[in-house]
Amino acid sequence: MSETSADTGGDPGRYTPEVSDPGTAEELNRLWDDPPGLRGQLTGVQNDLVGKRLVLTGFFFLLLGGSFDSLVMRLQLAFPEQELVSPQFYNELFTNHGSVTMFLVILPIFEGFAILILPSMLGSREMPFPRLGAFSYWTFLFGGLLYYSSALFQLVPDVGWFAYVPLSGPEYSPDLAVDFWILGLGVAEVGAIAAGVEIIIGILKMRAPGMTLTRMPLFAWAFLVMAFMILFAFTPLIIGSLLLELDRGFGTQFFDPELGGSSLLWQHLFWIFGHPEVYIQFIPAVGVVAMILPVFVRHRPVGYIWFVASLVGIGFLSFALWAHHMFAVGLPPLVLSFFAAASMAISIPAGVQIFSWLATIWAGRPVWKTPFLFVIGFLIIFVIGGITGVMVASVPFDLQAHDTYFVVGHLHYVLIGGVAFPIFAGVYYWFPKFSGKLLDERLGKWNFWLLFIGVNVAFLPMHQVGLMGMPRRVWTYAAGQGWDIYNLISTIGVLIIVPGIGIFVWNVVRTIRRGEPADANPWGADTLEWALPSPPKQHSWTQPPIVRSRHPLWDQERLDRGDPQLMHFVRGLGQWPLKWRAAVVVGTADGRPVEVFRVSNPSIWPLTTAGGVVLIFLAELVKIRWGAAVGAAIIIASVIAWNWPQPPPMTPDEEDEFEREYGVPVNAHGSVIVARTGTLLAILFVAVAFSALLLSYFYLRLENPQWPPAGVSDPPLGLAAVAAVLVVLGAAGVPFAHRQIAQGDMRNFRGGLYAALLLAGSGVVVQVVDLVRLDVGWTAHAYGSIFYTLAGFVVVVAMAALIMLAMVVFWASRGTYTYRRYAPIANVARLWMAMAVVWVLGFATLYLGPALT
To answer: Where's the Heme-copper oxidase subunit III family profile domain (predicted)?
Structure first.
């Protein structure tokens, strides 16, 4: 087959390798299936269940908050001086519209796409941490419901999706409405980070043998970048939300300028999340388009390597332009120049993607099916939004257009064109694969044209009315300013969009009931998921495929052909094991199998853990703070039960026998490699959160000429130094224990663990005693607020590490670990070394910093 064209009309069944035992697939299907009935709904962890739930719940919140709110707002603004709704209700509508769209719709839908599609696309049987995926869904659902429960108490947030202080602070929003916003969306943010960890490890470690990084689908590259961005962007938002809730609920002074705080600190923390969030939503949309466009033009994507580089470039650059939204706050000109340059530079990698798609279309032969129509609509609308984005990247222009309807029009062109259209394209494209039925093409075209026309009619006039001076977030406007006709046209556009969404909903419902059956590969696509039946089996792949191309279904006659060692391995795994859920881990770069491990079974503990998380946030909402302690206890107990060691389903000798025959280690007690990667990502999360707190500390310090403030002495070093020494010595004891068990010295192994627990625990106790005896003033000044918050963060992280160490000591005393099976020791050692670094940096900042100035 040539490099420039592909015969996509062949029999897709030929791509599925033969299985020697016909009963094997059914036996594996039963093994991987979730339990039936209500028990399965509560304990299910299968990626298809979790992925579909995320997508469907995201669409539910879209209909609830994205469509209804926008319709009412546009009806209110259709004519001047209307009173269809009150000003207060209008404020609630635009706050809900922005918050729901940014937090509860787009990202959960894309994370659902990833969890649903990636195992089949990458040639794996499951995601690496199925229980973590289930936890991410439950926290997203509970967070969304907690946020929406504000309507039941008539306490709907009304401060915008950005919740700027002081408007969102205790002085101007004293009721619980903003607390619903902070705490409800905070729970959902925890779920987003959990799903991000799942996606990163799934892409890096769980791919088909032979699928190197340079053979990965662009979809996987896009979602990998997205998931890393989630860790770096959502974590500062969680810290910012924590500081805001401390101001509101505990009387701290982070954002009160009269007491050492700064209202701009919130904007910095929020937009470190907020602007990358736009690209967190855009990049997976790019991945969806990058999969669909080549299939419908019958041509390979032009410039694969450049395309991957552009994705990574956007991921990095997006964190260099958060002050793009703060040009009007009075930042120094040099700072404005830097962020303006970064805001313009990010258009370069986006341009690489656009020209790659245009070149691919030019070289191919388009087939005008509904998914491709939405892709073309995306290209047109997003380019318009990108052009206006470059305009607002210019400081002089932005100072004129800031907080006008020009920005509203730009934002909706970017988000609807750049995100919503790819979502619809993805649903039409993958719906046949995971439902077994084709969505109706005639209804699909009506769906597209109504949305495409409606979006342009609704949002193009906003640019003009914004240039004419109409401010955003206004409830009404006076007649005679020339704004009337543009607002009426925008309202007509929304009235066109609404039936377009209605047709989509009807198309889905109709297809589920009596849609046309879909074969395995109705589009003639090139990636692995289309080699599976529609819908796929519960375990996806009975025999792992062998990948030798970026487009395996276009280039490979069979997926069970490769070098002899790989062929022997995949055939062996296709027949064994049949009593436990086995999945393959591959090398990150070369795609060679490096481990076979046991994937988690269904469990109730992700649900109970999510319940504990939401209980902590709910207890703070209603100010019953002992409830937070109950929630923490539930989390600790559930996580321990979640990770309780299970008896391995095979002996070490049987594992060695498989390794001798196939050349790949077996870890039936759980993956060593996946667990190590998960630990490193957990350390990364802690590091980002700690960095956000350090940023807050030093920002407030720069804002205050006297630090500590007058009347507050420098904290004494004595007990803090003793605590630091004890914690560092304790942290060093865990790697010592790890080395001892690796050498088979069980006595020194246990002794090292006991010493580590005793020393580190003593250090934490000493530090807590020191914090209690200090009289810094928690609520008197921003210095005391950040002092105790930063110290409390370090202590809480250390206590979590102590709980993990205590459980390792308990399991070691029961003889759980052997010279062969001791991966948890290595992971706890890594965690404690990172903990020691955080402890030293944190308390050096708090205790030595003031003393050195």
So the answer is: 593-851
Question: Regarding beta strands 593-598 and 582-586, do their DSSP bridges make them parallel or antiparallel, or are they unpaired?
Answer: antiparallel
Q: In this structure, are residues 386 and 350 in contact, taking their beta carbons and an 8 Å threshold?
A: yes
Q: Show contacts of 481-484: CB within 8 Å, 24+ apart.
A: 481/80, 483/80, 484/79, 484/80
Residue 532 phi/psi, 5-degree rounding, is -90, 160
pLDDT for the residue 2: 32
The pair of three-digit structure tokens given for residue 771, joined into one six-digit string? 């914090």
CA-based radius of gyration for the chain:
28
Residue 729 tokens, joined: 């010595």
Cβ(129)–Cβ(639) below 8 Å: no
Going along the chain from its start, the domains and CATH numbers come out as 48-367 (1.20.210.10), 677-851 (1.20.120.80)
516 in helix, strand or coil? strand
Alpha-carbon distance of 733 to 602, in angstroms, equals 35
Cα separation of 503 and 299, whole Å? 31
Measured in degrees and rounded to the nearest 5, phi and psi for residue 596 equal: -115, 125
pLDDT > 50? residue 16 = no
- Between the two ends of the chain, the Cα-to-Cα distance in Å is 70
- The string of pLDDT tens digits covering residues 253-295 is 999 999 999 999 999 999 999 889 999 999 999 999 999 999 9
The chain-wide mean pLDDT, for the chain, equals 91
Backbone angles phi, psi at 648, to 5 degrees: -60, 140
In the chain, what percentage of residues exceed pLDDT 70? 97
Q: What is the DSSP letter of 595?
A: E
As a whole number of angstroms, the distance between CA 283 and CA 223 comes to: 7
Contacts of residue 308, defined as CB under 8 A and 6 or more positions apart, other chains included, come to 218, 221
Beta-bridge partners for 471: 404
pLDDT digits (tens, 9 = 90+) for 192-202: 999 999 999 99
> Which residues, 6+ apart, have CB-to-CB distance to 596 below 8 Å?
573, 582, 583, 584, 585, 658, 664, 665, 666, 667
Q: Which residues of 54-92 are buried (b: 16+ CB within 10 A; e: fewer)?
A: bbebbbebbebbbbebbbbbbebbbeeeeeebeeeebbb
Amino acid identity, position 707: W
Cβ pair 468, 483 in contact under 8 A: yes
CA pair distance 831, 280, nearest whole angstrom: 28
SS3 content of the chain, % helix, strand, coil (to 5): 70, 0, 30
Find which of 172-176, 186-190, 221-225 is predicted with most confidence, using mean pLDDT: 221-225
What is the tens place of the pLDDT at every residue in 420-451?
Answer: 999 999 999 999 999 999 999 999 999 999 99
Task: Give the long-range contacts of residues 68-75, CB within 8 A, separation 24 or more.
Answer: 69/93, 69/94, 69/96, 69/97, 69/100, 70/97, 70/494, 71/494, 71/495, 71/498, 73/97, 74/458, 74/490, 74/491, 74/494, 74/495, 75/491
